[in-house]
Specification:
heterodimer; A: about 150 residues; Heat Shock Protein 90; six-stranded antiparallel sheet; 6 strands; globular; B: alpha/beta; five-stranded mixed sheet
Chain lengths: ~150, ~110
């Protein structure tokens, strides 16, 4: 994890996420939860951010070739970003439908691939946006008002 | 109801978190699809699942699930037990099926509230 102070935005924490590393999977989300708890953020907001962070982190571990998770915390808003380096999502609208998943059998056997990750993130956040391009990667941003 | 009250009425083995059996349980949930658990899993609750890999501990920690019960004496990955002890999550295994466990817990008065 790296931390930098960013004037006007507050603290920014970054995490490198490795593709396919299930042993470490969930650590970024757990770290973000600990930070929010130390800051005394409302328990309900912590739960929503934790769920979103976990789902985004697992998406990156299962589907992407790796990327970065960033969380910026200011007194007004928590801005969560998950930016990966590919392969990109072919049909974002379809990926947003509950129940749709492209997860492989090995991931499904572990209980992943319910097709609820992105809908869970959207439901938990106050503002959600996702952009993706095949061959380029995916940019996901979720905001939580404080 | 405490975890210790619940497990005293079912055949079980304590795999992790033995020092936290006095936690109060308010709710129960039974599911093996992890995103569904993330969406509906109960805070301060008990979770029955056949998944045994280390990621279930991350889920329990994030949702503040107090106790995981693994049914049918399914063997649990040692990494999962180690992580559970680190994160203070109680992990119990039982020879009963998830269906039997859920039925017994429900009879004891453990319902569902998110």
């Amino acid at each position: 994890m790296t931390v930098e102070s960013n004037a006007g935005v507050g603290m920014v924490h970054s995490y490198q996420i490795e593709a396919g590393n299930f042993t470490k999977a969930g650590e970024a989300a757990s770290s973000i939860k600990r930070i929010l708890r130390q800051l005394g953020v409302d328990a309900n907001v912590i739960r929503r951010v934790s769920i979103a962070a976990y789902e985004a982190e697992m998406n990156m571990v299962i589907h992407s070739i790796g990327g970065t998770i960033q969380v910026a915390i200011s007194p007004q808003v928590i801005v969560f970003k998950a930016i990966d380096e590919g392969p990109g999502i072919e049909d974002v609208n379809l990926a947003m439908e509950e129940g749709f998943s492209t997860a492989k059998d090995w991931a499904r056997e572990l209980g992943f691939g319910a097709g609820m990750g992105l809908p869970n993130i959207k439901r938990c956040s106050d503002d959600f946006r996702i952009q993706s391009e095949v061959g380029q990667g995916t940019y996901l941003e979720a905001r939580f008002l404080l | 109801m405490r975890i210790s009250d619940i497990i005293s009425k079912i055949p079980h083995t304590i795999l992790a978190g033995e020092e936290f059996l006095n936690r109060e349980i308010k709710s129960g949930y039974c599911c093996d699809l992890l995103s569904r658990v993330m969406a509906h899993g109960p805070r301060n609750g008990i979770w029955i699942t056949v998944q045994t890999h280390v990621n279930i501990i991350a889920i329990a920690t994030l949702l503040e699930i107090s106790c995981i019960i693994i049914p049918e004496d399914i063997k649990v990955d040692p990494n999962t037990i180690e992580k559970a002890n680190e994160e203070e999550v109680v992990v119990i295994s039982s020879p009963l099926t998830a269906f039997e466990l859920a039925g017994l817990l429900y009879e004891m008065g453990v319902g569902y509230q998110q």
